[in-house]
Each structure stands twice: as structure tokens, then as C-alpha cells.
Write a structure and sequence with these properties.
The chain is an alpha/beta fold.
Length: 288
């Protein structure tokens, strides 16, 4: 992996929350913006980037459906995860005052998450393709009374003032990212480290196949943290699953559970094993 370019790819424009996540998780790498998730992922697969930072789910908006369809089309491996709390900032051209703002642009989801504060200030919301893009447009064509909702990194990159931090109506909105690499990396099993293993599989066409496939995790005491279904093909005849379990493949309980999964499922693919992100072990945070 060290021979690959020191680049971490992400989807979006500079200043996006994916860009901010790249800076926090891998500040030693150059963050490279891509137009699509596929472009970012195939940069890694093609050896043009060392890693990719890809959002999988958001605590408010739910899962990113496209990622589940893209992952089986690549040979990438999950080597880590990153949780990024979404902190929306109200941005405006230098020297602007809060009471002067009449319109604010951002992605519709960000506007919805800040709806209460927008209404309280009597500001007109304007939909944009993305948060950082709204900040970039505002910087390129600053207008009196116009603002944008984006990250603090966008304010830095586009030389905008932060008129109000934590502009979202409710705190706790968090995005979980997967860190993808071309080469697999199985971390050494260490007793005091909690590991996550991500698996993709398709169930066999037999009665109670999913129940039987997952039964081995229950009987062997392996904690399942996430199960997502998605259509593996355009024909809508095969259902595939993404499974996150707590454990390491070198643990006996995991080995027994995986043997049972192999018996009742097909196309089983271990996407990666990696340490839990510290966000999961916060005293005030429970991930279910």
C-alpha cells in the first residue's frame, strides 16, 4: 500500500464533510475530490489513490444506497471506519452581519436539518446541489445578504465568515464512513482491542435460509451490529446482505459462525476486519 500515491479520494467538492473526514482520519494524505462515489472507489482500485473515504450511513438520513450496489463491483477492502459529527455552519462573505442575511443556500438535507434556525431568523432557504458547492458559489459571487450552510472547512477554503456555529436544530447528526483500500489488511488479533468484521453474502434459495445463515452468530455468541439487504442485480431476483459483526476471524467463535454462514449462504465475502472507531465506545453513545 505504501507504494501507492499518498492520496485519499472522496466524493464531493473541497470543503465537503467527506473532505473534512479525510483530513481528520488521514491528515498525512492528500485529499482528492471526485465527482462520484464510483470515481473515488475506482481511483483506489486502479492504483491512483491509496485510500477512499466513502459514506455508508447517516444517523438522520439513513443509508447511502448507492454504496451497497458499488461495493460488489469492486475488489476493495475495508481497512477502517470513521464517524464524523455533522456541524453545520452559517457562512457569509467577509464582513457580513447576521441581521443582514436574507437568503441561505445549501443541500436540501442540510436546509431541513437547520429549518428551525432558518425560520427563526426569517431567512429564505435556497436548494443547492451540495453544502460545499453552495459555499464555493457564494465565495465566487458574493452577494449582500446571501449566506450558505456548510462545514467549517468550507469557510476556511473559501474565505467566508462563520456567522453561527452549530446551526443545526438538533445535535447528534453523525455520518459513518468506510475507509477503503485496494489491498487487504488483516490486523493482528489483540485481546484488548474490539474489532469489527464486515461481510457481504447472498442467501441460498431454501426455506429460512437467512435465519439459518445468521444462526451461527447467535449460537456462538457473536454480536451482530448491522444487517442491510439490497438487490444484487437489476433482475431483482437475488437479495444480498451487508453484515457487521463484532469480532475477528481468528477468534474461535467467529470461525464457527463463519462456517455456518458458508453452509447456508453463497458468495460470502469478508470485506474487512478493523478496530472499532472511538465513537462507538463513548460513554454517552450507544450504537445499535
Amino acid at each position: 500500500m505504501t507504494n501507492l500515491p499518498a492520496i485519499i479520494a472522496y466524493q464531493g467538492v473541497p470543503g465537503a464533510y467527506s473532505h473534512l473526514s479525510c483530513r481528520k482520519a488521514h491528515p498525512e494524505l492528500d485529499a482528492r475530490a471526485c465527482a462520484t462515489f464510483a470515481e473515488a472507489m475506482f481511483m483506489v482500485e486502479g492504483g491512483k489513490a491509496r485510500l477512499a473515504m466513502i459514506p455508508l450511513e447517516n444517523s438522520t438520513a439513513g443509508r447511502v444506497e448507492e454504496i451497497y450496489r458499488l461495493m460488489p463491483k469492486t475488489k476493495l477492502h475495508i481497512v477502517g471506519e470513521h464517524f464524523e459529527p455533522v456541524n453545520h455552519c452559517l457562512l457569509a462573505p467577509r464582513g457580513s452581519r447576521l441581521e443582514e442575511i436574507t437568503t441561505v443556500a445549501s443541500h436540501p438535507q442540510a436546509l431541513a436539518q437547520c429549518d428551525g434556525n432558518i425560520n427563526q431568523l426569517g431567512i429564505k432557504p435556497v436548494a443547492s446541489l451540495d453544502t460545499a458547492g453552495a459555499a464555493a458559489d457564494l465565495s465566487a459571487e458574493p452577494k449582500h445578504g446571501h449566506a450558505a450552510i456548510a462545514s467549517s472547512l468550507a469557510a476556511e477554503l473559501y474565505d467566508l465568515d462563520i456567522l453561527q456555529d452549530n446551526f443545526q436544530d438538533k445535535s447528534g447528526n453523525t455520518t459513518r464512513f468506510l475507509i477503503l483500500a485496494r489491498d487487504s489488511h488483516m490486523p493482528e488479533l489483540v485481546s484488548d482491542i474490539r474489532f469489527m468484521t464486515s461481510i457481504m453474502f447472498t442467501v441460498r434459495n431454501i426455506p429460512a435460509a437467512l435465519y439459518k445463515a445468521l444462526g451461527g452468530f447467535s449460537t456462538n455468541g457473536v454480536n451482530m451490529l448491522k444487517l442491510e439487504s439490497y438487490m444484487a442485480s437489476d433482475s431483482m431476483t437475488a437479495t444480498s446482505f451487508h453484515l457487521d459483526v463484532e469480532g475477528h476471524p481468528e477468534q474461535k467463535a467467529m470461525q464457527y459462525a463463519l462456517q455456518e454462514l458458508d453452509f447456508f449462504a453463497k458468495d460470502v465475502r469478508i470485506m474487512g476486519t478493523y478496530p472499532w472507531h472511538p465513537f462507538r465506545t463513548r460513554d454517552d453513545q450507544i450504537i445499535e
